[in-house]
Amino acid sequence: MATEKVGAYRKYHGAVPTDKSGTTLPKSEWPRLRPFSWAVRWFGSDGKRFSKSFKSRKEADRYAESKQLEVRMGKGDQPRVVTLVEFARMYLDLRADLAPMTKREHERTLRLMNEFLGRRMIVSKVTSLEARRFVAWYRDREHRSRTPAPATVNKVLRECKRIFREAVACSLIRENPFDGIRQEKVGQRLWHQISPAECRRLIEASPSLRWKGMIVLGYCCGLRLGEVINLTWLDVDFEKHRLRVVRKAASKQQAAWTPKDKDMRTVPLPNAVVSILAELQLSAADGQEYVFVNSKGPAAGERVKQSNLWRDFQTIRERAGLPKCSFHDLRKSYCTNLADAVPLHVVQELAGHADIRTTRKHYLKVREEQIDTARRALEEVMRS
């Protein structure tokens, strides 16, 4: 923190004025005879002096007033000089709590910023103009002959705000340059609500008991795919018909994993899910911790990897004759089905959403029969 009073002073330029005999005139005469600008000066806590020049006294006084306020708040020191590439390493070390997928996304965003702004760019020198230029550049940047969708641009913008929020907290920059940049308006993506009959067709089309279990956990319990593959037998309570979605600590048998919402939640298990899980447990090897493991190959007995599951689900969907949909649509259908029976805040809790607006906006779909009911109600109104 700065220790001296912030002051505005004249900053003279050119030769010192003298009289006809060559004698230096007193300083009281200088403002009239010598060109000058205005400078604001203050000292940091390490004794180093800082200065900033202005053309007019009004500008200098205004800046000195704001700087004096910063000094009182303990923010008088200049931000540390750290390059963007150094900050990238620092940020990833500080945010060791990020989920693996989120960490990869933030690494990619940091690489993009390094690509546009330059690896030697000083963090404190990133202005709101540079931030806006970066967003505009990314919006027009082609990758595999395609520019990013507006939703993807919004996602990168949110990540930039989050990354620079950390820079502000570490006193590497005064203000977040990405604050104030608005996200683009994006229409909600259409998704297919999977009916109970379609879910049964997916189960019938599944090539293995493992896939049947994964599908019912998505549709009947609302689990994310990452939550499904990280499920262990200790998380399943057959007696109470419940399962827990809980953080996993690293061990010899388990990989470290954190749920997206960070908090533990308990989800009820319908009988159909209990039956399939019971079959899976009977076929599980001794000492097997994860519910879903590879059955063959060099990774036999190890936890299923997420990489090829999206593709395999599409194969099952096509075999079942369903319209285009994703594994995540199983979870969305779960929320919509549940909303007919329980209050919205219960749906939010069981789905593991931090914000109820997420549940309402992205996970609830108006059914066809509800639209028909609304139409009939309007017809009755018009007839009366």
Brief digest:
The chain has 384 residues and is mainly α.
Total separate domains: 3
**What is the helix/strand order?**
EHEEHHHHHHHHEEEHHHHHH
Strand order of the largest sheet: 1-2-3
- Shape annotation: elongated
CATH topology of the largest domain: hpI Integrase, Chain A
According to CATH, what is the class of the largest domain?
Mainly Alpha
Output the radius of gyration: 31 Å
CATH architecture field of the largest domain: Orthogonal Bundle
Average pLDDT level: 87
State the fourth-level CATH superfamily of the largest domain: Intergrase catalytic core
| Tally of separate helices | 15
Largest sheet: 3 strands, antiparallel
Oligomer: single chain
Proportion of residues in extended strands: 5-15%
Helicity range: 40-55%
Estimated structural class: mainly alpha
**First CA to last CA: what distance?**
74 Å
Poorly predicted runs are none
β-strand number: 6
Structural topology:
Elements: E1 7-12, H1 30-33, E2 36-43, E3 49-54, H2 57-72, H3 84-94, H4 100-117, H5 128-140, H6 150-169, H7 196-205, H8 209-221, H9 225-229, E4 236-237, E5 242-245, E6 265-268, H10 271-283, H11 309-320, H12 328-339, H13 344-351, H14 356-362, H15 368-383
Antiparallel strand pairs: 1-2, 2-3, 4-5, 5-6
Attribute tags:
hpI Integrase, Chain A; 6 strands; DNA polymerase, domain 1; 15 helices
Structure characterization notes:
The protein is mainly alpha-helical and 384 residues long. The protein has 3 domains: 66 residues, no CATH class; 86 residues, DNA polymerase, domain 1; 132 residues, Orthogonal Bundle (hpI Integrase, Chain A), CATH 1.10.443.10. The strands form 2 sheets. Strands 1-2-3 form a 3-stranded antiparallel beta sheet, with helices on one face. Strands 4-5-6 form a 3-stranded antiparallel beta sheet. A hairpin with a 4-residue loop joins β4 and β5. α4 crosses α6, α7 crosses α11 and α12 runs antiparallel to α13. The protein is elongated and about 110 Å long. The model has no long low-confidence stretch (mean pLDDT 87).
